[in-house]
Amino acid sequence: MSEDPRTEDLGFARVDLDRAARTGDPEVVYGAGKTPEQVGILRTLHAKHPDRAVLATRLSAEALHAVRELDADVDLVARAATLGPVPEPRGSVAVVSAGTSDAPVAAEAALTARVHGAGVHEIRDVGVAGLHRLLAVRDEIERVDCLIVVAGMEGALPSVVGGLTGVPLVAVPTSVGYGASFGGLAALLAMLNSCAPGVTVVNIDNGYGAGVFAARVARRTAHSTSSEPT
Amino acid sequence: MSEDPRTEDLGFARVDLDRAARTGDPEVVYGAGKTPEQVGILRTLHAKHPDRAVLATRLSAEALHAVRELDADVDLVARAATLGPVPEPRGSVAVVSAGTSDAPVAAEAALTARVHGAGVHEIRDVGVAGLHRLLAVRDEIERVDCLIVVAGMEGALPSVVGGLTGVPLVAVPTSVGYGASFGGLAALLAMLNSCAPGVTVVNIDNGYGAGVFAARVARRTAHSTSSEPT
Amino acid sequence: MSEDPRTEDLGFARVDLDRAARTGDPEVVYGAGKTPEQVGILRTLHAKHPDRAVLATRLSAEALHAVRELDADVDLVARAATLGPVPEPRGSVAVVSAGTSDAPVAAEAALTARVHGAGVHEIRDVGVAGLHRLLAVRDEIERVDCLIVVAGMEGALPSVVGGLTGVPLVAVPTSVGYGASFGGLAALLAMLNSCAPGVTVVNIDNGYGAGVFAARVARRTAHSTSSEPT
Amino acid sequence: MSEDPRTEDLGFARVDLDRAARTGDPEVVYGAGKTPEQVGILRTLHAKHPDRAVLATRLSAEALHAVRELDADVDLVARAATLGPVPEPRGSVAVVSAGTSDAPVAAEAALTARVHGAGVHEIRDVGVAGLHRLLAVRDEIERVDCLIVVAGMEGALPSVVGGLTGVPLVAVPTSVGYGASFGGLAALLAMLNSCAPGVTVVNIDNGYGAGVFAARVARRTAHSTSSEPT
Amino acid sequence: MSEDPRTEDLGFARVDLDRAARTGDPEVVYGAGKTPEQVGILRTLHAKHPDRAVLATRLSAEALHAVRELDADVDLVARAATLGPVPEPRGSVAVVSAGTSDAPVAAEAALTARVHGAGVHEIRDVGVAGLHRLLAVRDEIERVDCLIVVAGMEGALPSVVGGLTGVPLVAVPTSVGYGASFGGLAALLAMLNSCAPGVTVVNIDNGYGAGVFAARVARRTAHSTSSEPT
Amino acid sequence: MSEDPRTEDLGFARVDLDRAARTGDPEVVYGAGKTPEQVGILRTLHAKHPDRAVLATRLSAEALHAVRELDADVDLVARAATLGPVPEPRGSVAVVSAGTSDAPVAAEAALTARVHGAGVHEIRDVGVAGLHRLLAVRDEIERVDCLIVVAGMEGALPSVVGGLTGVPLVAVPTSVGYGASFGGLAALLAMLNSCAPGVTVVNIDNGYGAGVFAARVARRTAHSTSSEPT
Amino acid sequence: MSEDPRTEDLGFARVDLDRAARTGDPEVVYGAGKTPEQVGILRTLHAKHPDRAVLATRLSAEALHAVRELDADVDLVARAATLGPVPEPRGSVAVVSAGTSDAPVAAEAALTARVHGAGVHEIRDVGVAGLHRLLAVRDEIERVDCLIVVAGMEGALPSVVGGLTGVPLVAVPTSVGYGASFGGLAALLAMLNSCAPGVTVVNIDNGYGAGVFAARVARRTAHSTSSEPT
Amino acid sequence: MSEDPRTEDLGFARVDLDRAARTGDPEVVYGAGKTPEQVGILRTLHAKHPDRAVLATRLSAEALHAVRELDADVDLVARAATLGPVPEPRGSVAVVSAGTSDAPVAAEAALTARVHGAGVHEIRDVGVAGLHRLLAVRDEIERVDCLIVVAGMEGALPSVVGGLTGVPLVAVPTSVGYGASFGGLAALLAMLNSCAPGVTVVNIDNGYGAGVFAARVARRTAHSTSSEPT
């Protein structure tokens, strides 16, 4: 069973080396609950994909320290790291976030989209309680190939953005809030019930999933000249 | 026990005749689950308060028919009826609703606020997916003494309105939606988690409660000339 | 307020005539809870967009009958209708569904994607309990620009499909099931927690939302020759 | 984008300097999850609004210590701080709380209402299991312009108070309780279902939101001579 | 197996004829979902316990009609019936209910307590929004051996009653309400979290269970002269 | 795609003709939501498996009538039908149910186990509130190869049976109950938390799933002489 | 307001000195979240009720240490303390618990019942998975005036005990369990849905509430000679 | 009461020494919340069953250390320990797990099945997002007498495995995941709604329960030569 060249058996894990062939993107290290040693799997992935950055997310402080020793690039806000060169961007993604507390999720989404080959533009702190901030960036929103909209609390931002533009939009609810937010459930339900047509949703705090999806859409679209927006 | 002049014993109910003295507003007939005969309690309340309209809400088709026989005024959209003259309006309330399906709840709120003594202005179908409709009525929203904002689905409208104005705002989630709306739970949670400061919330579909509250605020404020806005 | 050319006031509704300019797609009639008369709004939309099909979804039997009188094309499985010519397809979408009971949601997704300008290929009844049926259509899945994957009960199909391909994938949970399915909640939660990277999700039974989103992705991509797959 | 005078970009946040013009009240620092350095944003707000106290809530012990260094006034029970002079009170608010464990939420509500310009009267420990304590303060309740009623556990106090008076009433459920309190859900649901007409509700433990709302009502009403009640 | 004299096998059911010997009370016919024929089991129970009324609850209109043919006494409000003489009352129970819509549950509780041997006193429509009605019957509440307190919506009545007296108190939440009442969940949670010491709770709408329990307490206590209160 | 001999394409469904080869048991018709015509798929399955009964479950009254026309054997309590000869029993299963209202689920489990090749013994109405009924059948429980234990309400029966015997036990929660039963959720949770070791659980009301599983265990075990117990 | 002799104002709390007169039992110190200093309120209560033990529950390790300094008697298992002489027992209560992990809740119930004047008999570790342990103590269960039955996980014990005896029974769900126990929710729902008639329920882990209630029933009953059972 | 030879009273616990006679398997020490001293109960069980390993699960680091002093064999991944010789295997069980984070639950299941007398084969890291890993071990899955399938997140693996084979299958949801996984609820619901026939489920993270059940099935089946598979 372990002779399959599509799989590398590390004892505690069987790395899916075939994933890039199958889906276009290599496997990613999901760091939650992993020891710094286990996060070392990042090196295995890098050896298999030397010309393309591989990614580790949800890293503890200890794991972030450990991967820095591996010469990985560390993103402290996103609590993530990459090893190897980030691809030349094709297509563009905007990551729009509602409040300052949503920053870690937005950063994970942005880094993931970059590692998966898209150019990324970040627009922060444009929550619906101050609409002028959002309306001021309307042109920036319209220009990209895919939108990621990140919000906690009542999760209203995707509905408002989705009413302003027809750019494909992925909404990310965050666990920012308290009481009847129930750990992000309120924002999740709001986004699933958006009255704006064509809003799709990922799990609470899942910046990674939104980043993969948006990069795939952007790479395929690439209707702009693919240079990273400023 | 039944000699108390503050209570009238009808066998199946003890009407709280003292409520107007205590709270400023007479008791109201909550018609859900009541037979047309039981809704006749409206006449008892009218006899006690002849110079001021009394209200029956959540009436079945049969009960609406029955109260019409009592010379009550019937509001088919609100599924409610009044008996007696509506008070001269003091202060003003705007009822702002997101979609056409929210009409029954908005109508219940509007009628209730009128019966409880406020002038009412209705602004319909200004959901957040088409912001221009809301921004076009911004002045009307700013002019009143209290706002009632009615929305189903993701319940985002109160956050957007609450970011535009400091007028006291009562949000009413409606059961409009399907699937993960869970009968209005999504809108309720969204409104409770609004990032706009000072948004308060009532039960799902509770136009009545919002109407009572807003009228009480408006009557006390009455900073305008109290004429009904157009 | 009603003089705004972007809005047509029908009394019970204010039609957002500006939506196509803003988002690329005209407003759609959401028929749930609407009377056959109210569904007549479809004619207003058609008059505004004569060269492009407009859509009404979630129609009751009575409303389906009524719109047929308007010369609309009726899709009985999707419980939906269109008025006007369906656009020439650009890009392609595959609608993959798990079981026969998911047919109405899959049909709504397929019709919506067509009306919004994409070519659509339908792959039915390939639930995970008989993997050979899915593996047999792997090539068809790989060829399209965006995937819609529809499943009820445990909602496992998107994870399996998402592990086979890197095509952008929108998952639609359905309310098919009983007991601890809780009206589609089980499938919804499963899809939100998919271990396959890049799966996004819409509301339970929301074929319409998935169709809009997927068509937008496909239209932008259009990397194939856009002819409808067979 | 950052040249807009209505916004100040601090790197990690864009302060909404326009909020006071738009809503009558400046932005507030929500301290949960913020470092002591980030709470320093309070100084930015104070510089913009030197003649009116600005507020920071939900401060950690470290942040409370840090803001004290800024010459802010610290309220240890409310875990909040203000910088600048509290406005002359207009109108009056009573904060009525059920038990001693509700003190932090009640204190946050009281401080917020004062900072937002209302006179505040606090009535503590009048839970429904000892009605004589509540009935003894009935006159004090009747005299104010707006009531804030704070309770955990079964959340019954707003219903009892709301049956005694027609003063506008905002209910605040708290997370006080255990087991089937589910972090304040029991109190929240009870308050949303209050049989007393005209009770509105804010999020669990949201003393801040209740304080903003009540102050707005009180400021507008100001039917008394606005002197702080004793 | 079927020879056991403690059990009578009716084909579709095995009647527990031993229950009265074991627990002091015969089995009861729970009529929900039973056909009128199946409710005929009441006759079997009566034959076994001829000198003591047996009870059938939750009867459909058809079943009520059918048991009337058996010479059973029918209680239309409680949707229940008894066959045989009600026992001489020992001890007393008061059934206190909050609103008119709670009447069916209160009636089931009262009839059950009578059939199980207690004297019963009914106090109706004393909800907490009009405290004077409750305070007027305080003496009646104090006099009995066990209290049953029935309320829907926010379920506050047991807390208020439980603060006035040390009489053992069983609370019955009802499904009266809408929206965030969630079929009686709000009242149930409130009662479980009562701040009044010594409140116990039964299932939503379970007047029967409360009646059995209260009668058992009252029969054992019997400190009064056991005559039925008026 | 449709040439695969493992699949028969009926237009609205693709029948998995390979399932018996793969898993030992042919596909089953799940009748919920299917028209009488669609249930006719039973004939297709019978043609493929002429020497072994095929099964249709959850049939409406109309569908039961329709399949009777196909010469199917109908089980009215189970709302199910079979076509073809039931297999010779190998191994034995006991279906133990708590109350008379659980009969339909128990009957579905029993019929399914028979169709899947096990001998079945049914033990009815042995709920835990009358333990003598259960203790009287202890030997019958001990003798079989697999137990199915069916209960609604508090779902306690599997824990009690599981403490008496080491026979493999599958628990089936039913939706029997009201109020805080929440459609069988209470019984489901209870069974998942059973303190008796080795209790496994299926979905609410899923007699079918329990029957398949138990028959598979019994067929493999077959330690007795496989004659149907009496 | 503070002159009322029924209340003693301690600054952070208003002690309800009238409670014993009103309900027969003095107020109790609920220690959760209270500092050791605040728990000193126990001395105030003792001074008011010198001839009768007063109780503090849910004490932290620090608070237990502090009250020991006050010469209070400390129960480490129950995490509670008493000050003053425990009353002469009238009537008897049995506290029956399912597993060793339920010990703290059972101990709180037992101590509370003793402090409230009942004799108490404790029966431990008689869970339903080993019925012989329960059947062995059947006589002890039958002899008392009120039963408290404590169980976590599936919460089945009250149904089994309630089927064996007609003694009034209060069930206490505990938070013992994991996964789908959801902090005691599974046991709570099971007990609310008990098929044994006359089971009442208190909040999760609420040994105190059950103890107060049971003692009240036992004191009133006192049909035995009130000597503490062995 | 304590003279019963079926029970050993340890003060804090009554050990059920009769369980092996009744069910075939001795009692097990559930270590959660137990002190290292209390886990010493393992020695009591070993003395009673010297020729057969006894098991302690859910051990803290301290308890693992303590039992090592008793010469117990410790499994660090499973956080469990055994004392005494593991039985000769009869029949075989495969433990199939989806991801590396599921390892502790899978290890608990495997150890439990071994202690309960079955041969065990472990297949790790074959999640559905890389189907080739699962298809590669299809023969190994087909060969055993009972399957345990362990998965977190969306819990899809049991459905896929259950569609490939007719071997009896017990699914174990794990708490692996975040956000809308709700501590394993998503995986639990998915498994309960599996479209593969004959899947049964245990509590979240309950490797122990699955191990007991599967071993019982395997021991009874023992159709192979019972040698441990490689």
Polypeptide structure, described:
8 copies of one chain form a homooctamer. By secondary structure, the first copy, chain A, is α/β, with parallel strands linked by helices. Chain A is built from 10 helices and 11 strands. Chain A has helices at residues 19-23, 36-39, 41-48, 61-69, 103-115, 131-135, 138-143, 157-164, 185-192, 207-221; strands at 7-9, 14-16, 29-30, 54-57, 73-75, 80-83, 92-97, 119-123, 146-151, 169-173, 199-201. In chain A, the strands form 3 sheets. In chain A, strands 8-7-9-10-11 form a 5-stranded parallel beta sheet, with helices on both faces. The first copy, chain A, has a 4-stranded mixed beta sheet with strand order 3-4-6-5, sandwiched between helices. A two-stranded antiparallel ribbon of chain A has the order 1-2. The longest helix of chain A is centred in the last third of the chain and has 15 residues, at 207-221. Chain A is globular, with a radius of gyration of 18 Å. Residues 223-230 of chain A have low confidence and may be disordered. Chain E binds chain F through residues 1, 4, 6-7, 12-14, 16, 18-19, 32-34, 38, 173, 175, 183-185, 188, 203-206, and chain F through 100-101, 103, 124-126, 129-130, 132-133, 136-137, 140, 176, 178-181.
